[in-house]
User: Fold Thiol peroxidase from Saccharibacillus alkalitolerans.
Amino acid sequence: MAQHRTGIATFKGNPITLIGPELKVGDQAPDFKLNRNLLEEASLNDFSGKIKLISVVPSLDTGTCDAQTRRFNTEAADLGERVVILTVSVDLPFAQARWCGAAGVDRVVTLSDYKARSFGEAYGVLIDELQLDMRAIFVLDENDRIAYVEYLKEMSEHPDYEQAISAVKALL
Assistant:
C-alpha cells in the first residue's frame, strides 16, 4: 500500500493528502511511464545522459501552471542541449499539445500522467482528494540522481524558479 502524507500541503488553505514517498536530494529518481500522446509513452530512460528539470503542475489550464510552464520554456533557451525540461501533469496529451500550441511553448516536453497516475505516486505528488499531481520541481543529474527537489506547501503558489535554475546550472 502506498504511503499517504497528510498535513504537509494545502490547496487554497485546505489540507490535502499526498500519496507516495517524499523524495530527497541524493535519492535515485524513480523510473516512470508517462504519455507523450495517447499511444506513445516516455520513460526516464528516454532522457538518459541529460540533466532533467521536471516541472510538475496540476493542470496547464490554470494561471500558476501556465506561468510556471512558460517561465521554464523561456529558461530552456539558455540551458543548452545537455538539459531537458519536462512538464508533467494529468492533463490529457491532446490538451497539453493544444495548450503548448496556443501558448507558443516549444522548448519543454509535456508528458501526461493521466492513465495510472504512477508518476504522481512514485514521486510523492499525487493528491488523493483531487487525483491531480501537486506542484513540485525535481532536478536530476545525468545519472538520474536527485540534485534538487521542491515540494510546494500550497498548490496555488509558484515554485522558486531561481533556485531550480541554479540547481540545473550547478550540474553543467
Observations:
- The mean pLDDT is 96.
